[in-house]
Design brief:
Blueprint (H helix, E strand, L loop, with lengths): L6 H23 L10 E12 L1 H4 L7 E4 L5 E18 L5 E22 L4 E3 L3 E3 L4 E5 L4 E12 L5
Antiparallel strand pairs: 1-4, 1-8, 2-3, 2-7, 3-4, 4-5, 5-6, 7-8
Length: about 160
């Protein structure tokens, strides 16, 4: 009995080997996705600009926050602060002054998650990158919005 190998068999074997190689690197070589990597508690602050009142009211302490792109959990909202949205307007004399924007608010949330710190970034849940100054599309069960990460802190556990 003679075994025939055609080009489709070769392509299938190469694809399976490539998939196995990618899985190996993802779970054993890349530092932030290794399953045995120590996770720390990370706290980060996000700011959402110029939201309407009904959007402000959807943020609740204790709600889970998800990354809109990956749909992965990226923490729990621990604190919420709201302030009047300020824009800058030009006066009749030509000077620019801060002015409150009617019916718009800036929301700042503090989020706590399990994650890790690398030389280049922080990662929530080993996979969602967090960097100060970047915009991130996030969602809860009640709202989808884009906020900017203002600060990130690793909370070190006290050793006994």
């Amino acid at each position: 009995m003679k075994i025939k190998i055609n080009k489709f068999d070769v392509i299938a074997i190469v694809l399976l080997l490539a998939l196995a190689l990618v899985a190996y690197f993802k779970f054993n070589v890349i530092e932030h996705t290794k399953t045995d990597t120590k996770m720390d508690k990370i706290e980060y602050v996000m700011e959402f600009k110029a939201l309407r009142q009904y959007s402000v009211d959807t943020f609740k302490s204790g709600d889970t926050l998800y990354d809109s792109q990956t749909k992965m959990e990226i923490g729990t909202i621990k604190d919420i602060s709201v302030k009047q949205c300020i824009t800058y307007a030009e006066t009749i004399k030509g000077t620019v002054v801060p002015a409150p924007t009617e019916d718009k608010y800036d929301v700042t949330i503090t989020v706590e998650t399990e994650g890790m710190e690398t030389d280049k970034a922080y990662f929530a849940n080993r996979s969602v990158e967090l960097k100060v100054g970047t915009s991130k599309k996030v969602e809860t069960l009640y709202i989808k919005s884009t906020g900017e990460i203002q600060s990130i802190n690793v909370i070190k556990e006290k050793e006994a």
